[in-house]
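In this section we walk through a basic example: taking a raw amino acid sequence and producing a predicted 3D structure, encoded as discrete structure tokens. The instruction is simple. Fold the sequence below.
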Amino acid sequence: MVNGIDRPLDLLNAAKGKEILVQLKSGKQMVGSLLAFDIHINIVLDNAKEIENGEQTRSYGLTFLRGDTIIFISPSSAGKG
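The resulting token sequence is shown next.
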């Protein structure tokens, strides 16, 4: 167990309310505050933004992302790319 993370969903639980980076299968990256998730890794982001080459290209606000469109989620300093 590292930093209180024992299972994969523990990492997402620890990231609730914090900014995360989400890589999508389409090649797009999204950054936003994690509000909620479920066992299928469907996630809800607040203040979601699309990031391309480290720059914000679009702003979406409150956004739902389907778990089967996600490649990875990084809970670390997301917007600093």
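Looking at the output, two observations stand out. The first strand starts at residue 19 and ends at 24. Residues 8-80 form a domain with the SH3 type barrels. fold (CATH 2.30.30.100). In the next section we compare this with other chains.
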